[in-house]
Write a structure and sequence with these properties.
Blueprint (H helix, E strand, L loop, with lengths): L1 H26 L17 H7 L2 H18 L8 H15 L8 H19 L12 E9 L6 E6 L5 E6 L2 E8 L5 E7 L2 E8 L2 E5 L6 E6 L3
Antiparallel strand pairs: 1-2, 1-8, 2-3, 3-4, 4-5, 5-6, 6-7, 7-8
Helix pairs in contact: 3-5, 4-5
């Protein structure tokens, strides 16, 4: 009888402990990362996503750095007052990414495109900074493309590249590779890839073979 009593006591204690641990875990707030806005006072679901994702939080901090630099540039194109207006429109558009399964990819595209716009329009924004997370836009002449293609890089974990040529653009994410820097992604047209190694730079778009690209100075 003592053995059964002791067994029931142990089971009861274990059950109580399990419930206690479960409740404690449920009560623990999700980890948040530093962003350009107050994560304790977020209103949009996208902002909550950014606060809880280290890659998006990095992109947010970097974009705010670029935006603030653009506001100090008297020669920015567009001018600083227009940059401020554009930033508000951009925030509203970013917040439309929603909370669906593609919301993170949508936010990444939004940040990558905005970084390209700010860096393209201001020499000050492109100023060398050892702590920067963005580079570019870098220009490439690719076989088969009539227009120059520009690449703007977000050096996050994983990395992101925003490619733009003519009236087309695509945002690709870095994938693991031991011997080159490789980015892949897709849209409604199909799969894209962009890779760099010691032999050169290569780009592939849907329905076409891989082509080589040569770096050119940005005017």
């Amino acid at each position: 009888m003592k053995t059964l009593t002791a067994l029931f006591t142990c089971l009861h204690v274990a059950s109580v402990c399990a419930v206690t641990i479960s409740c404690a875990n449920a009560a623990s707030p999700a980890r948040t990362f530093k962003t350009s806005f107050d994560c304790a006072d977020t209103k949009a679901s996208v902002e909550r996503l950014i606060c809880r994702d280290p890659q998006l939080a990095q992109m947010d901090i970097e974009l705010m750095r670029l935006y603030r630099l653009a506001l100090t540039d008297e020669h920015s194109v567009p001018p600083a007052n227009k940059v401020m207006i554009d930033q508000q429109f951009w925030i509203e558009a970013r917040n439309q990414c929603g909370s669906g399964p593609e919301s993170k990819a949508c936010v990444i595209r939004s940040y990558a495109e905005r970084a390209y716009q700010l860096r393209q329009g201001s020499a000050i924004v492109r100023t060398k900074d050892p702590d920067r997370l963005t580079e570019g836009p870098q220009a490439f002449r690719c076989t088969g493309l009539s227009d120059l293609m520009t690449a703007t890089f977000f050096n996050t974990q994983p990395g992101v590249v925003y490619l733009k040529w003519a009236n087309s653009s695509i945002t690709l994410s870095q994938v693991q590779s031991d011997f080159e820097t490789r980015y892949t992604g897709k849209n409604y047209q199909g799969n894209y890839s962009f890779r760099q190694n010691e032999n050169g730079v290569y780009f592939q778009k849907p329905g076409a073979g891989e082509v080589s690209c040569t770096a050119e100075p940005v005017g």
